[in-house]
Amino acid sequence: MPEKTDWEAFAANMLKAELKRKGVTYAQLAELVGDKEVNIRNKLSRGKFTAAFLLECLCAIKVGRIELDQ
Questions:
Q1: In this structure, are residues 2 and 34 in contact, taking their beta carbons and an 8 Å threshold?
Q2: Could you tell me if residue 69 is inside a domain?
Q3: How many domains does the chain have?
Q4: Which among 67, 25, 46 has a CA at the least distance from the CA of 57?
Q5: For 8-20, what is each residue's pLDDT tens digit?
Q6: Which of 27, 29, 53, 63 could form a disulfide with 58 if both were Cys (CB 3.0 to 4.6 A apart)?
Q7: Which backbone phi and psi does 29 adopt, to 5 degrees?
Q8: Has residue 29 been placed in a domain?
């Protein structure tokens, strides 16, 4: 399996950080977006997900603004 690119890792880490800030578990996120917890875990572990999925998750946990400082 190919390694995560820097951008994939950045996106996954950003989403994980927002989940932590909001106190939302993978199980809770799965319920909010209508997916299975195992699928959420796999997507975030691999860092392979669409921009649409990222936006869906951020909206589901009510993140209104993100900082993209690197």
A1: no
A2: no
A3: 1
A4: 25
A5: 999 999 999 999 9
A6: 63
A7: -60, -45
A8: yes
